[in-house]
């Protein structure tokens, strides 16, 4: 029963914005799951749900994976809006951004979690991306450029 209820919770929060435990309990009840607020609270902890800000300025429950995916999409949009140039320097990639935007673009790069990238350092308008040994920096540059389209 718990597994089915958890699956229903994931389905509900994927299809609509649920702001409170009481609202989630009511929606579960509509699906035939009679639960208390305490049960919903335990389910939220077990499912590791978090509250995220919606585009309307409200909060809703989401899975960590969904929240990370949404955040990554925002970072990629910011990356594409602030990067001016990308060049190769050995096993480093040098990314130039508009003034004051390198930290945002650097966060976008870090959120990608590409295994070929050892790390990045961001200044005000420049990011150095260290590529792991033996990896092709030109391929990674092409992936960055694809993000910008």
Would you kindly provide a written description of the structure presented here, covering whatever features stand out?
With 149 residues, the protein is of the alpha+beta class. The protein folds into two domains: 2-62, Winged helix-like DNA-binding domain superfamily/Winged helix DNA-binding domain (Arc Repressor Mutant, subunit A); 69-147, Gyrase A, domain 2. Helix content is 51%, strand content 22%. It contains six helices and six strands. It has helices at 2-15, 21-30, 37-47, 64-82, 102-112, 137-147; strands at 50-53, 59-62, 83-89, 92-97, 117-122, 126-131. The strands form two sheets. It has a four-stranded antiparallel sheet with strand order 3-4-6-5. Strand 1 (50-53) and strand 2 form a beta hairpin. Helix 4 (64-82) crosses helix 5 (102-112). The longest helix is centred in the middle third of the chain and has 19 residues, at 64-82.
- Report how far the terminal alpha carbons are from each other: 46 Å
Helix and strand pattern: HHHEEHEEHEEH
Global morphology: elongated
For the biggest sheet, the summary is:
4 strands, antiparallel
CATH hierarchy, class of the largest domain: Alpha Beta
Amount of helix: 40-55%
Number of strands: 6
Number of helices: 6
Approximate strand percentage: 15-25%
Question: What is the CATH T-level topology of the largest domain?
Answer: Gyrase A, domain 2
Any guess at the CATH architecture of the largest domain? 2-Layer Sandwich
């Amino acid at each position: 029963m718990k597994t089915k209820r958890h699956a229903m919770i994931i389905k509900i929060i994927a299809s609509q914005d649920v702001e409170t435990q009481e609202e989630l309990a009511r929606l579960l009840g509509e699906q035939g799951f009679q639960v208390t607020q305490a049960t919903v609270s335990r389910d939220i902890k077990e499912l590791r749900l978090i509250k995220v800000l919606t585009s309307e300025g409200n909060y809703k429950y989401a899975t960590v994976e969904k929240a990370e995916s949404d955040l990554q999409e925002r970072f990629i949009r910011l990356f594409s809006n602030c990067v001016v140039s990308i060049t190769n320097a050995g096993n480093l990639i040098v990314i130039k951004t508009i003034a004051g935007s390198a930290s945002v673009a650097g966060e976008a790069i870090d959120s990608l979690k590409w295994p070929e990238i050892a790390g990045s350092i961001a200044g005000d308008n420049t990011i150095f991306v260290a590529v792991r040994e033996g990896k092709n920096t030109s391929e990674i540059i092409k992936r960055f450029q694809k993000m910008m389209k």
